[in-house]
Amino acid sequence: MADTVVNIAGLEHRYGTTQALRSVDLTVASGECVALLGPNGAGKTTLVNALTGVLQPTAGHVDIDGGDPRRAQTRMRLGVMHQIAGFPRTLKVTELVSGWAVRSGQPASAAAPVLAEVGLSDLAARRVDKLSGGQQQRLQLAMALVVDPTLLVLDEPTLGLDIDARRGFWRTIAEHRDRGVAVLLTTHQVEEAAAVADRVVVLSDGQVIASGHPAELTSRLADRTILARTALDGDALRALPGIVDITYEAGRLRATSRQAEATVRALLDADPTVSDLRVEGASLEEAVVSLTANAYEEVAA
Amino acid sequence: MTPQILAVEVRDELYGIIREPAAVFFSIAMPVGFFALFAGLFGGPSDGPVSNATMMLASFGAFGVISVALLNPGIGVAEDRERGWLRVKRVSPVPVSTTLAAKVAASLPVAFGVYAAMSVTAVAMGTFDTDLGTWLAIAGVLLLGSLPFALLGLAVGFSASGRAAPAIINAIFLPMAIAGGLWMPIEALPQIVQQIAPALPTYHVSQLGLGVLLGEPVLDHVVALLATTAVTAAAAATAYRSSRR
């Protein structure tokens, strides 16, 4: 079994009277990518702040490679990409990355290969305020990698990247994962998380409400989408077993069903002219929305 | 923390000053320009042992040195906070105290450069009449005397936005500079201002420089500046803690 890089147990945090985190347990193994998902205000930022040593949690335990992230020594090999980095505008790319290497105990010379890896070698002498948004994201990645990380914390890392740059970004991350780097990803781009993460952890109202492989989470959602061309009218369709909702797209039925097999059987019995029939599973986004809505209803009840 | 890390921090801060045209103008060019103007107008021989321009190196020199020490760390912190850079730094292994120390340390060579440029101006005008040892001693006390102002700048930087910080710092500093006798001799100011002046730290920095130049006692001014340092350090620490909430 791979080594555990992140170990969070019973983590609680309170801002005044607001309980931001409630008994959160989370582990990330070496080489594993865990995506942290959830609506705004779910506690993702607080969790990341506790993990990166920015805040002292009210209760519980956080460690990275066995060390407390509040200690500078533990953060030496922590690579972080922030949503907003706010680089000092007067520094050049190479100065920023080599300086970041030195701050983390690496030689300044570590900057050059990392800049080549993220495709910024040609821009090494450019001031950071002259970089485009996508180039600044790559610069952040260079800063995260130059510390020779054991853990990468990526907060909306592909925001502002075009498709090619996005693919290049995830290729680079995959190479580092192959070498054992653990990754914690927080993002609102759920389908991207589904594509890259080994495990998804869903936070809602400060607690973990679901955790597992993306396919495992989507399979928990009973809803299926049935697409078909049919002569049945709306009332007849709503009378079919399991139907939750129906809409039409360019004259084609789009029905949501809780019992897809029974619905399809009944539909074919009722309308022998059905054509263009397709059944789709739920997306991770639908699963996350459903899970967080259920959690909210349970809290409200 | 290693010396290499401090060197990188100071280097980054120095680039932040010397590569920023507005910082160069307001921190360096403007005080030196004003010194040249005033030394040209009023810098001739005095009734005392040295010329007025040399006396102004201690008083107006204090204005130049304090300007750099107050403005650059203060505005730098405010802008770093606003842009999110200070948050990025907090995740790095470098303690925030090192970043702040580097901001203050980086202002020292720039402040010394301002003092040196004023001195070169006085030499060029033929009104510089002190020895190297005294000149260096004045530089030393002015730089040390600027420390409480650097802490005051940090307190403002942790409390105000990047846009508001320069206005707040100037609103605090300019009246203190004028009333403390940094722009003109204290004797030339109205009676009421002369009575207020000893309560101002700017007065004590300038009197410290003049005391070193003229060989007068400076203990009272040192004590006053130590007390000011304690107050501004407490203000900076309080502002820092508030900014983290």
Number of strands of chain B: 0
Terminal-residue CA separation of chain A: 41 Å
Q: Mind telling me the C-alpha Rg of chain A?
A: 23 Å
Secondary structure: helix percent of chain B:
over 70%
Strand content of chain B: under 5%
Describe the oligomeric state of these chains in a short phrase.
heterodimer
* Arrangement of strands in the largest sheet of chain A: 5-6-7-3-8-9
- Beta-strand percentage range of chain A: 25-35%
Shape summary of chain B: globular
Largest sheet of chain B: none
H and E order of chain A: EEEHEEHHHEHEHEEHEHEEHEH
Average pLDDT of chain B: 92
What share of residues of chain A is helical? 25-40%
Sheet of most strands of chain A:
6 strands, mixed
Q: Can you give the mean pLDDT of chain A?
A: 91
Structure description:
The complex is a heterodimer of chains A (301) and B (245). Chain A has 301 residues and is of the alpha/beta class. Chain A has 2 domains: 4-213, Rossmann fold, CATH 3.40.50; 223-281, Alpha-Beta Plaits (2-Layer Sandwich), CATH 3.30.70. Chain A is built from 10 helices and 13 strands. Chain A starts with a strand and ends with a helix. The relative contact order of chain A is 0.14. Chain B is globular and about 60 Å long. In chain B, helix 2 packs antiparallel against helix 3 (52-83), helix 3 packs antiparallel against helix 5 and helix 3 (52-83) packs antiparallel against helix 10 (201-214). Chain B contains 11 helices and no strands. Chain B has one domain. Chain A binds chain B through residues 52-54, 72-73, 75-76, 78, 80, 82, 84-88, 90-91, 95, 99-100, 102-105, 127, and chain B through 4-5, 8, 11-12, 15-16, 19-20, 80, 82-85, 87-88, 90-95.
